[in-house]
Amino acid sequence: MAKKKEMEGEVFYPSEQVVEQARVKDWEAMAEKADKDLEGFWSAEASELEWYKKWDKVLDDSKKPFFKWFTGAKVNIVHNAIDRHLKTYRKNKLALIWESEDGKEHLTYSYFAMNREVSRMANIIKAMGVRKGDRVTIYMGRIPEIVFAMLACAKIGAVHSVVFGGFSAEALHGRIEDSQSKLVITQDGNYVNGKIVDLKRTVDEALKRCPSVENVLVVRRTGQDTPMDPLRDHWYHELAKLPVANGKCPTEEMDAEDPLYILYTSGSTGKPKAILHVHGGYMVGTYTTLKYVFDLKDEDRFWCAADPGWVTGHSYIVYGPLLNGATSFMFEGGPAYPYPNRWWQCVERYGINILYTAPTAIRGLMRFGEAWPNKHDLSSLRLLGSVGEPINPEAWKWYHRVIGKEQCPIMDTWWQTETGMFMITPTPTVPLKPGSGTRPFFGQQAEIVDEAGNPVKDGDEGYLVLKRPWPSMLRTIYGDPDRYVNQYWSKFPGKYLAGDSARRDADGYYWIIGRVDDVINVSGHRLGTAEIESALVSHPAVAEAAAIGLPHEVKGTGIHAFCLLRAGFAPSESLAEELRQHVAKVISPIARPEDVKFVDKLPKTRSGKIMRRVLKARAQGLPEGDVSTLEE
Ligand code: PRX
C-alpha cells in the first residue's frame, strides 16, 4: 500500500484499487466544502431525492435545540425508498434477499414485489383503523415482514416503534404503554439458534395491561400452536387474502418534519428514552451517509448484519439501502449457528460486497479460528464495516486480514440511536487506524471538552460533543421534550452531548473510549445500570443493588451485579443464579449479569448515590480514585 502522509501510530492506507473505485477521491476537499457551506451540502444531497414539494428552508435553528430541517417540504421516505425506483430499471432489481436461519428458505423481493408487499400490509393496517400519526409497535425477528411492517407504517404516515424481539414482556409492555400504540405487529415465533422464541405469547403477556392496543397482527413464521384472541388477534396470511389487502396503496404526503418512528434506548435513568426521528431529515441523512461511507454502487449487495430492532437495522438494513436503490441482504439467524461458517456461507452464496457488523460478532467468530472463513470464497467483499462499540485492534486486524484479505477497508462508524446516521466515520479512501472511527462525517464538527466545556488538548480524554446540527438528528424524546433538552443540550449549552468519552490524536482522529453516563454497552447493546438495578430490586430477596460493567472478551463489557439482601434471605449460589435469570426475564437475556455478588454494604456518596466507579475499581483491583464524597 502506498504511503502518503506521515501519520502517528499504525496506519492502513487505501490501495490504488480502492482509490480508483471510490466515489469520494478527495476527502479533504469534500469535507472543506461541506464545512464551509453546511446547508449547501445537505441541500445538494436532498436534491438527489424526490420531494412532493421542495423546502423553504434547509435548516431552521430558530427554536434550537429543537432544530428543523427542510421546513415546508412535502415528502414521504417510502416514496424515495420504493416508489421512485418503480419508474426506473430498478423496478425489477432485487431490493431484499432473505435467508432463513436453517438455510433452507431463500426469498427475494424486487422493488416491484417490495411495493406490493408493503402496500398489502399498509392496506391491512389501514383497515384496522391505523391513521397518520398513530403509533404501531412492531415486535418481530429478522423476517421480511418486519421490513414490510416498518415501511407500511411509514407509507401511511403511522409512526413505527420497533421493539427488539429479544426484549421481555415487561420491557415490551413499558414501550407499548409509553408510545400508546394502537396496533402491535408480531409473529407466532422466532427461530433463534434452532429454538423457537414465543413472540406472540410474550405480546399476550405484555398486553394484559395495555388498553391502547386494539388489534394484534400476527405473521405466521414457525407454525406452532398459538393462542389467538378472536376479537383482538388476526393472522396476517388470512387477512392478506381479502380484497382489501390488495397490492396498491397510495403513499401519504407528509411534512418533512412529521414523525417517522420512535425507538427506545437506554439512558442514565431508569426509563428508556423514546428517540423520535422524522421523514425528511432522517431520509437525507441515511441516504447520504450510506452512499459515501459504504460507497454504495448500484450493483452492490449490502449486508448489515444487525437486527432491525436497533437503530443500525432501521438506518442501514431498511431505509439507507432502499433509499439508495441497493440490494439489502437480511439473514434470520446468528453468525455461529449451527456452525461458525454460517455468515461466510451467506457471503459466498449471495456474493455480498459489503459486510457491516459489530466488534462483538467479530470477536466471537475469531475464537473459532480461521479455518471456518477460509473454507469459503469471500472475494466478492469490497468493504467492511464496524459499529456499536470501540473495536479492539486485534479484532480489527483479524477482520481485515482473514475476512477482507487485506483488500477491504474497514469503515468504523461511530453513531447513536439519537444521531440516526454515521457521525464519525471514514470513507473508503481515508487512511485507517485500527480502533479509530477517524474523523467527523462531512459537515460535522466534533470536540473533546473537559467538565467546564473547554476543549482539552489532543491526546487527553474528555466528553465528546457535536457542534453542528445534522439532518437525521433526533427531534426530541417523544412525550418528554424537557428531558431532550436536559439530556443532550444542557451540560454544554449549544453543543450536543453524546454521552461518550473520547480523545483526539495529533492527526485529528477520534478514539471513542466508552460511555460516561450510567450506560453499559454489552455486545453493542445499550443497557442502563438503573434498569438492571431496578430489575434486581424487583426480586423479593433484594433490598438494594448496583450494576457495573467490566471488560469481557467477547461482549466488550459484561454486567456484574452487587446485591444487598433483605432480612430473611441468605446468600447462595442458587440465589445468585436465580437473580441472573430474573434480570434476563425482566429485561432481556442480553441483560443477564455475568455474576451476582452479595454484599453487606454498597459504596455510596453522602447524598446516597451509589458510587459505581468505586465498585468497578475494587473489582479490577485498581486504585479507587477520589473517594472524598464516600460516606463513612
Ligand atoms: O458508546 C457509543 C457506542 O454505542 C453508543 C450508541 O449506542 P446505540 O444508540 O445503541 O447505537 C448503536 C449503533 C449506532 C455510542 O454512544 N458506539 C457506537 N458505535 C461505535 C461506538 N463506540 C465506538 N465505536 C463505534 N464505532
Number of E-type strands: 30
Give the fraction of residues assigned to helices: 25-40%
Bound molecules: adenosine-5'-monophosphate-propyl ester
Low-pLDDT segments, ≥5 res: none
On the 0 to 100 scale, the average pLDDT is 95
Structural class: alpha/beta
What is the strand content? Answer: 15-25%
Principal-axis shape equals: globular
Largest sheet data:
8 strands, mixed
Q: How many DSSP H or I helices?
A: 19
Order of strands, main sheet, comes to 12-11-8-6-7-14-15-23
Radius of gyration: 24 Å
Terminal residue distance? 60 Å
Describe what this molecule looks like in 3D.
The structure is a single chain. By secondary structure, the chain is an alpha/beta fold. It has 19 helices and 30 strands. α5 crosses α6. The chain is globular, with a radius of gyration of 24 Å. The mean pLDDT is 95.
Write a short abstract of this structure.
This protein is α/β, with parallel strands linked by helices. It contains 19 helices and 30 strands. Helix 15 (393-403) links the parallel strand 19 (383-386) and strand 20.
Keywords:
632 residues, alpha/beta, 19 helices, 29% helix, 23% strand, globular, binds adenosine-5'-monophosphate-propyl ester
